[in-house]
Amino acid sequence: MTQCPSSIPRYSIGTWDGEKESYTPQHGLSVPSFNSTRSQLRIAMKELRLMGYRCHRFRDEDGSHDDNDWTVLIERTDGKHWKEIRRGWRRPTWS
Predict the structure, then answer these.
(1) Under 8 Å CB-to-CB from 17, ≥6 apart: which residues?
(2) Fewest beta carbons within 10 Å, which of 7, 21, 71, 72?
(3) Per-residue pLDDT tens over the stretch 41-86
(4) Residues 24-39 pLDDT 10s
């Protein structure tokens, strides 16, 4: 995967996998899970809703995001390599 120009916002989308205890790319999307454009992100969210995810993204009146759908991770990644993105999606292991 090539690096995307940093001036173009890119987003990565993952869903929570309880067995792996980490976010993973969602199978069945018609757009890439890594470094999607804003229009591709909108398509992914629509498809995820059809799969049963809420994809709720809303800032509460107090400025918090407590009511967001935690099973869907959307983050701005601006062309990072997919391996770097996946490392960030792993749940930390505590010893």
Answers:
(1) 23, 24
(2) 7
(3) 999 999 999 999 988 776 667 766 667 788 999 999 999 999 999 9
(4) 999 999 999 999 999 9
pTM confidence score: 0.78
Per DSSP, the residues of the chain read: -PPPPTTS--EEEEEEETTTTEEEPPTT-SS-SSSB-HHHHHHHHHHHHHTT--------TTS--TTS-TTEEEEE-TT--HHHHHHHHBPPPP-
Strands 72-76 and 11-17: antiparallel
Q: Which residues of 18-44 are buried (b: 16+ CB within 10 A; e: fewer)?
A: eeeebbbbbeebebbbbbbeeebbeeb
